[in-house]
């Protein structure tokens, strides 16, 4: 059996994460993703819907 590499939201380009975030409301994004880690903070802070 081949070893499986765990996948992560952080491995996706920011543009793909933005497309995922497009399907969530603002409260869900802020409460679920913001302050999880520095990289997700940068992605949510630069999310065009918040600009």
Detailed description of the structure:
The protein is mostly helical and 51 residues long. It has a domain at 12-37. Helix content is 45%, strand content 0%. The longest helix has 8 residues, at 14-21. The radius of gyration is 13 Å and the shape is elongated.
Total beta strands: 0
- Which series of helices and strands comes N to C? HHH
Percentage of β-strand residues: under 5%
Mean pLDDT: 88
| Overall 3D form | elongated
Q: Can you summarize the main beta sheet?
A: none
Helix content: 40-55%
Oligomer: single chain
Helix segment tally: 3
Give the distance, in angstroms, between the N- and C-terminal Cα atoms: 46 Å
Low-confidence stretches: none
User: Rg, please?
Assistant: 13 Å
Structural class: mainly alpha
Short overview:
The protein is mainly α. It has helices spanning 14-21, 26-32, 38-45.
Secondary-structure map:
Layout: H1 14-21, H2 26-32, H3 38-45
Task: Please supply descriptive tags for the structure shown above.
51 residues; mainly alpha; 3 helices
């Amino acid at each position: 059996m081949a070893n499986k590499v765990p996948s992560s939201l952080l491995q996706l380009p920011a543009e793909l994460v933005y497309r995922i975030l497009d399907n969530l409301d603002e409260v869900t994004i802020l409460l679920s993703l913001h302050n999880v880690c520095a990289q997700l903070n940068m992605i949510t802070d630069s999310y065009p819907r918040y600009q």
